[in-house]
Amino acid sequence: MTTQQPRLLKRTLLSVALASVGVMGLAGAANAQDDTFKVGFVTFLSGGASGPFGVPAAQGAEIVIDAINEGTLPAPYDSKGVNGLMLESVVVDEAGGPTKQVEEYRNLVQRQNVDAVIGYISSGDCLAIGPVAEEMEMFTIAFDCGTSRLFAELDDPQYMFRTGLDAVADNVGAARYLAETRPDAERIAGIQQNYAWGQDSWQDFTLAMEQLMPEAEIIANQTPQIFQGSYGTEISALQTERPEIIHSSMWGGDMESFVLQANARGLLAQADALLTTGESGLHRFDGQAPNGTILGGRGPFGAFMPDNELSEWFREAYEAEHGTPPSYPASKAAQAILALKYAADNSGAEGVPSSEQLAATLKGAEFPSVSGTVRMDLANGHQAVQPMYYGEYHYEDGEAELRNVRSYPGECVSAPDGYNAQQWIKEGFPGVDCD
Amino acid sequence: MLTVWAILIDGFIYASWLFLVAAGLTVIYGVMRILNMAHGSLYALGAYAAASALGWYYAQGGDQLWIAFAIIAVSAILIGAISGLIIERGLLRLMYGRDEILMLIITFAVLLILEDVMKLVWGTTPYFAWQPYAAMGRFNIDVLTVSQYDLLVMALSVVIGLGLWFWLERTNMGKILRSIIHDREVSEAMGVNVRRMFTITFMIGATLGAIAGGVTAPIISVVPGIGVEVIVLAFAVVVTGGLGSITGAAVGAVIVGLARATSIHTMPELELFIIYAVMATVLVFRPHGLFGLAAARKI
Amino acid sequence: MKLERTELSLIGVAIAIAILAQFSPNWLVFTLTLAISTALVVMGVVMLMRAGLVSFGQGLFYCLGGYAVGLGGRFLGITDALVLVGLGVVVTTVVAMILGLLMTRYREIFFAMLSLAFSMILYGILVKSHGLGSTDGFGVVDWTLLGFTPGDGQATTTALMLALVLALAIALFLNRYFKSSIGLACEAIRENEVRVEYMGISHRKVLYINYVLAAAVGSVGGSMTALAAGHVDPTMAYWTISGEFVFIAILGGTGHVAAPFIAALIFTLVRTYAVELAPNAWQMILGIVLLLIILFLPKGIWSLFTRKKGAAS
Fold first, then answer.
1. Contact at CB, A233 and B223, closer than 8 angstroms
2. Is B17 on the interface with A (CB under 8 A)?
3. pLDDT band at B137 (very low <50, low <70, confident <90, very high)
4. What distance in Å separates the CA atoms of residue C133 and residue A230, rounded to the nearest whole number?
5. C-alpha distance from C90 to closest chain B C-alpha (Å)
6. Cβ within 8 Å of residue A167, ≥6 positions away
7. CB atoms C117 and B298 under 8 Å
C-alpha cells in the first residue's frame, strides 16, 4: 500500500464528515413546510417479515397516501390532503430490533421533524416505542403489532394508538369458530414459531379452548424456530399424535411453507388446519391448502373486508397497482392512514395539527375505514375494537375464496378495559357480548 | 416404535439436507481457509433462481417432472458458478494472505451486499414453486407419511458426498488440492497454480451452496432472509464435524440431524438449544471438532 | 510522555462532548449515547483481538448487562443507574469467570464458534422465558442517578453524561492496561503463543484475565444501552448483533483505545443515514463501506490518525 492512499482517504473522509454535518444542518433548516404534513411510516423492508407483511403494508399505505393527495378517496375522505395539507411520508425499515427502532424513532421525530408516526409490525418494537412516544409527545399509531401488553404496560397513554386488534382477539375468535363449526373435535395440536408471538398465541388459544371446548384435549405443540422454512420433522411428530385440528399462528413465508409441506405429506388430510394469519396466503396457496382449511385475517382485513365504498375502492386500487387483491397487512396499513386523515381533518386545527390535537380527536373516536366502522373504545379510547372473522379456504377452477365466514363482534373477542386478557379468559369471559 | 422410526427417518432426511448446505462451506474452508459467511446467500441465490425458473416453466403449462429437475439443476449450477466466479475473481482475489478472521468479515460484507442485491432483483414477494415436491408423492408407514422428494434429496446428498470424496481422494486435481491444504507455499513452489485451484474450489463450493438452495426451493416459500438463517446452522455442522473435512461434515450432519429429530419428537421445547448444545459438547471434548486436526504450533 | 498526552486528550474530548451535548438536538445526544455504549462492547472485542481471539458471542455479555438492568429494576426494585450497572458487571464477571475456564483453551475459529454457541444458548433461554416477554422483551424502570431523578427530557442527556463518565474511566484504565505487562503479553500471545510460554508467562492466565475484563466492559455497554433505550430484549444476544460488534472493531482497528469510539460513531451515523436515504439498500451500503475500509485501511480507521504511514502496508 502506498502512502498516497491514506492521505487521499483522510481528505475524502474529512469531506464526507463535513458533508454529513452539512446535511444535518440542512435537515434542521428544512423544517417541515407549512403546507405539508409529514408522517413517518415504519415497516419491515428487509428480512423475513418484509415479503408477506412489511412491503404489502408499505404498498397499501402508499396507495392511500397518493389518493389522499389527489383527493380521489370515497367520502368522507374525499377532501384533498389531510386537513388541507399535502401528506408526505418517510418510510423507514423496521429491521434491527427494538433498540435500533427507538433510535430511528427519535431520528424521525427530531431530525426529520415528522408530524406523526405510523408503523410497527413487531410486538417487541411496539412495546419499546410506546414509552418513547409518550416521552416525546408524538402522535403515534401502531398499525399491526398484536401484543396485549402494549396498553397493559403503558399507564394512561396520551399519544400512542393502535388501530388493529390484539392477538387475544385472534385466538379467542379461533376457539369460538372451532366450537361452532367443529364441536366434536377432540384432539387438538398446535405448531407455533418459537418466539413471543407464537407463545402468546398458543397460551391464549389453549386458555380459550379450556373454556369453550372443555371436552377437547390439547395433545401436542411444536415450536419450530422462526424462519426455519422446512418442517418435515415437526410434521412427523404431529402425525404420530393423530390430531384432528392443528392450530398455528405461524405467519408469512413460514406459514405458507408449513401448509405446503403438511399438505404434500398428507397431514392436512388427517387434520384440519386453523391458521390465525392464513388470509395472507389466500391468493397464494393455489390449491395447495385443502378445502376447509380455516383462515383468519387478524380482523376484518384483506379478504375479510366487508363491502363498503372504501373497501371496494381500496381493493380495486390495490389490485390495479400490484396485480393481486390486498392482503390483511395492506388493509391494516390503509386503516391507520385513514385514522390519521380522520384525526387531522376533524382536529379543527389551523394548518398543521399538533400531536395533542390529533390525539384528542382520535381518542374514543368512531371512523369509517376499509374494514367498516372502527371504534377506538378500549384502553381509554386508544385501542380499536373491531369484529373478528374466520372462514374456510375453498379453491375451485383456479379461484380461491372464503366460505362459511363467521364474524364475532369486538365485545365477544376482546377483554373489556380493566381486565388482563388472560385473566379475562380464565374467568370465563365476564362481560362478553357475542350478539 | 413408530416414534423411533419417525426419529430415524426425519433425522436422516434433515441430516442429508444439512450436509448439502454444509458441504460447500467445508470444501471452501478446507482448501482456502476461508469461512465463507456468504454461503447462506449463495444458498438463497440458488433457491431464488430455481424458484423463479420453475415458476416460469409451470406458467408455460409444463408438467414434466424430469424437466423440472433439470431446471433446478441448471439454474442452481449456473447461478452458483457465476456468482462464485464473480466473488472470487472480483473480490477475494484482492484479499488473499489476509488474516483468516478478516476474510470472514469480508464474506460478511458480501453477505450484506447480496441480501440487498437479491431484494433488488427478486423483490420481497415470496416465491412458491411447490409443484415438484407435491408431484413426487409420498408413502405411508402406519400414520406416518414420507415424502419421496425428501428421499430424493437424501440420495442427492449421498451422491454429492461420494463425488466430493472421489474428487479429493482419487483424482489428480484432488491430489493437487491436498498438497495445497498441506502447504500452500511449497505446492506453489512445485509449480501448482494455486490461484487457479482457488478459483475452481470457490466455484465448486458456491455451486454446492446454490444446489442446496435449488433443491430446497420446492419445499419452502422463498423469501428474503432465508440465507441468513442457514449460515449458523451450516457453521455448527461444519465445526462439530471438524472444519474442512467432508467426512466430518457428513458425520456432523447426521449427529445434529438425529439429535434434533429426537428432541422434536420427545421434547420439542429443547429444539432451540439442541444444535448449539451438540456443538458445545463436541468442542468441549474435541476442541477441533470430530474430524478436525489440531494445527501444528509454530514456534 | 505520550501516555499522558493520550489521557489528557481523552479527558479533553469527553469534556468537549459533554459541553457540546448541551447544545445538540436530542436525537444526536441519544445516538451518541448508543454509540458510546456500543463502543464499550466493541472495546471488549478489541481486547480479545489484541490477544488474537475473535469473539462472535460478545452479545452474551452485552445482553447480560442489559438484562441485569432490566431485571434488577423490575424484581429487585433497584432504581439507581450506577447500582444497576454494577449489578450487571458482577453478574457478567461471574459468568465470564466460569466460561473463561473453558474458552481460553480455544483459538481462532473455534473460539469464535464456541463463543457464538454460548451467546445463542442465552438467546434460547430468554426466548423460552415467557414470563420475561420472550422475544418481545420488557421495559426498563425509570431510573435515578445518585438520588437525582431526571425529569422530562433530561433522561437522554443524563444517560449520555453517565455513559461519558463510565466510558472515560474505562478508556483511561484500558489505555494503561494495554501498556501493562498483561496487556503487552496479550499482544505477544497473538504473535506467538509458544514463545510466550518459553518466557515463563502462563498464557492461559493472561488470556483468562483478559477475557473476564473484556466481558465486564461489554456488560457496561449493554447496561448503558438498556438505560438509554429503556427496553431490553433477547436480540441483544443474537449472533448478528455480535457480528456487528466485530464489524465495528475491524472498522476502527485495534491500534488505540479511542478507535472503537470513533468507529462506533461512524458506523451508527453511516447506518442511520443509509437507512434514511436508501431504506431498501442500507445493508448494501454498509457492506460496501466495510469492504472499502478493509481494502484501503487494513488497520482500520484509526490508521488515518497515526503518523506512521508505512505501517499500513
1. no
2. yes
3. confident
4. 26
5. 25
6. A146, A147, A148, A197, A200, A201, A204, A249, A276
7. no
Q: Is any Cβ of chain A less than 8 angstroms from the Cβ of B33?
A: no
Task: Specify the number of domains making up chain C.
Answer: 1
Between CA C224 and CA C33 the distance in angstroms is 8
Preferred mutation among C136, C160, C271, C289 to probe A, highest tally of A CBs within 10 A: C136
List, for residues A163-210, the tens digit of each pLDDT value: 999 889 999 999 999 999 999 999 999 999 988 888 889 999 999 999
Do residues C53 and C109 lie in contact, with contact meaning Cβ atoms separated by under 8 Å? Answer: no
Contact with chain C for residue B288, Cβ under 8 A: yes
Contact A92 C31 (CB under 8 A): no
pLDDT at residue B299, as a whole number:
53
Contact check, Cβ <8 Å, B221/A242 = no
| C-alpha span between B190 and A109 (Å, rounded) | 65
Residues of chain B contacting residue C116, judged by C-beta atoms under 8 Å apart: 232, 235
Q: 227-256 in B: which are within 8 Å (CB) of C? A: 228, 232, 235-236, 239, 243
User: How high is the ipTM of this complex?
Assistant: 0.86
Backbone angles phi, psi at A244, to 5 degrees: -105, -30
Q: How confident is the model at residue C1 (pLDDT cuts 50, 70, 90)?
A: very low
Question: A350: burial class by Cβ within 10 Å (0-12, 13-18, 19+)?
Answer: exposed
As beta bridge partners, residue A392 has A294, A403
What residue numbers bound the domain in which C198 lies?
Answer: 2-237
Give the pLDDT confidence score for residue C3 in this predicted structure: 57
- Looking at the domain assignment, is residue C251 inside a domain? no
Query: Is B101's CB within 8 Å of C286's CB?
Result: no
CA distances from C198 to C180, C181, C189, C201 (A): 19, 16, 11, 7
Pick one of 3.30.70, 1.10.238, 1.10.3470, 2.60.40 as the CATH number of B2-285: 1.10.3470
At residue B217, φ and ψ (nearest 5 deg) are -50, -45
Question: Running DSSP on this structure, what letter comes out for residue A68?
Answer: H
Contact between B277 and C288 using a beta-carbon 8 Å cutoff: no
